[in-house]
Write a structure and sequence with these properties.
single chain, 138 residues, alpha/beta, Transcription Regulator spoIIAA, seven-stranded mixed β-sheet, 7 strands
Length: 138
């Protein structure tokens, strides 16, 4: 499907997953979609919870996007509500897959809780693009 935003067109695809975890009161929602920007970059949006119940699906989705498109890959985390250790591992696996495929990979717009855990683990230096004009904050 093609969508039009201003003068830019982008290919958009979506997937939604519900996973049931007996320890949680209801279904867990993971929203995945991607779009191809006119410059050829692929932006994958991950929303909801990236955790033990949803991480594998997110990795499969991003691998598929990498396999189908030749441009750089940006994973936008602006709509990510929660990320546990399994979610962080999924992000590392996505980055590794992109690297092996020869695609530049970076994360964009992580919220403060995700940035905090990435700094604690040192993943911010590997996965987050430095702000314009300098290296990431320590």
């Amino acid at each position: 499907m093609l969508t039009r935003a201003g003068d830019a067109t982008a290919e958009v695809a979506s997937a939604m997953a519900w996973a049931h975890d007996d320890d949680l009161p209801g279904p867990v929602l993971l929203e995945l979609n991607h779009r191809i920007l006119p410059a050829g970059e692929v932006v994958v949006d991950i929303g909801g919870d990236l955790d033990i119940a949803t991480a594998e699906m997110a990795v499969r989705y991003v691998r598929h996007v990498i396999d189908c498109h030749q441009g750089p890959v940006i994973v936008d985390l602006a709509a990510l509500g929660f990320c546990d250790a399994r979610g962080l591992s999924a992000l590392v696996r996505m980055a590794g897959y992109a690297e092996r495929a020869g695609r530049p990979f970076r994360l964009a717009s992580p919220g403060p809780p995700v940035v905090k855990i990435m700094r604690i683990t040192g993943l911010d230096r590997r996965l987050l693009a430095p702000p314009a004009g300098g290296p990431p904050d320590s």
